[in-house]
Amino acid sequence: MQFEITHLVADTEFVTARFTCSSRHTGTFLGIPATNKLVKYNGMVIHQVTNGRISKTWTEFDLFGLKAQLEAK
Question: Domains of the chain, with CATH numbers?
Fold first, then answer.
């Protein structure tokens, strides 16, 4: 997997990164057998920082778009 951070925003409590991920589908994922396709999708991660340490993390990514790429003929 290769991640490229496209946006990074931070304040005193949160660090948020938007990313693009590229990967090759080489194993079963979401019940879909390996296709060897190169897929690309976007996502975002938000870290809450408390006392200089990550205390909570939320991650979102385009699972629908990823699945559509894997299932495309």
Answer: 2-62 (3.10.450.50)
